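Troubleshooting entry. Yesterday's outputs looked truncated, so today I'm pasting the complete records for two proteins to confirm everything comes through intact. If either block looks cut off, that's the bug. Protein one:
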Amino acid sequence: DAGPGAQKSESSLEPLLEQAEGQKLHVKPIAFVSAQPARDICNVAEVKGADLVLLGWHRPLFNRAALGGTVSQVLSEAGTTVGVLVDRGLQTIKRVLVPFHGTEHDRAALRLAQRMATQSGISITVLHVVKPGQLPDSAVQGLSREMTELFHEPGSPGGEVAVKMVEHADPAAAALVEAASDQPTPYDLVLIGLGADWGLEQRQFGINQEYFIRKCRVSLLVLHAPQPRKTGRPRSAKSSLATPS
């Protein structure tokens, strides 16, 4: 008997299961009561071989970090990529923005965007922000080639991929301007790596790390790449683990 707490968790997953069934996706729900949810989320992800842990974002209490608490612990301890979804009315995903500044977390966002583009034909815009005066033509050509090779795998449907390179002293401000653009159509989702460049930092207190979350009006998926493992063999990643928001 899993108890009333687990039964309530199972019922909260029903909308997700119904949506997955409508899209013919296989979803296996797991519900249990935990005194240490962050540790157990990481353990389940490890046992199941998940290559993505998806967490729902909850508005923090006053003077508490958006990426603190259980979310912070999972970000620090998970041996796989972690995504934190900030849902602002996300219904369908047709056009996605990926701000890029070269960090490993940015590359985790690119890898997820690549999966979405090749499997669903979603339109992707990669926004590469560089410091003023550092935008040579060779950099534009090199990044365009890299994106073409990444997003267009042989035999995949592949969506449209556009690369924009802009000069700006504040990468977060540049990304917010692009996210607000509705040309040719509004963005449905922003995939963004966790990092100070985007006004997203992993701290226990303060509001600086919430800058992009507070300012962006588009749904966000904040990506955190796993830290390199010091011991043990790398494992095979085959699935994803989502937790209810």
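Protein two, checking that the full record survives here as well:
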Amino acid sequence: GRRMQPGGSPYSVSSADINQIPAAMIERVDVLTGGASATYGADAVAGVVNFIMNSHFEGVKIDFDYGFNQHSNSNDIAKTALENAGIAVPGSFTGGQNRDWSFMAGSNFADGKGNATVYGTYLNTAPVAGYQLDYAACTLNSASTPAPGAPFDPIACGGSSTSATGRFRMFGTSPTTSSTRLVNGTIDKDTGLFRAYNRTTDSYNYGALSYAQRKADRYTAGAFLNYDVNDQVNVYSETMFALNSSSGQYGPSGAFAYVD
């Protein structure tokens, strides 16, 4: 019967963050579909979700959940793409742990007319970087049409052409017609000379450093107090605190302009 207050990011302050709701205190969840604006206001045209909290919890409850990701890194297609690009194929991966602690304590008073409950939770998520997974260790692109007689691989490692050695448009000679045309070129990192650009080996692999799973920490705490004065009147107090942090990591951006 009460709207949850805004708790989203600074860029979406009108959104309610339901991660603040302690799962241990939820008694049930009621989902009402269809037009509910007559009862809940214009925002409930498509329906409303009611989180019914346990208002008479008594005792102490401590929960701990632990989970992790396990990936064998045995995908043949991804392995072939990495090997063709000269990128090391990662071994079997175990990581990306999720740890979730929660504490709740409550007590009834005044012959069951009132209840006071406090809670605290902590969630920690470990990051996973692309280079730890075979399908994310390089930036995957659809493969180019192979030369006659060459094997076809459905995907190939690629990435950004904003790479350390650059990509240039230069005049070159077509190997099939001997005509002069514009081709993509780069500077060979070993010889320092211009040569044709190879998308698989010359592109910057930004996928290896990007997070496949973000690092996150979340703290929540709060207290609920309610007292039934009579069958028609209930006095209550609700205090909720949440602190969320999430870190992303992406491949470094290229220098698109500079001044000597």
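Both blocks look complete. Sanity check on protein two: The first strand starts at residue 26 and ends at 33.
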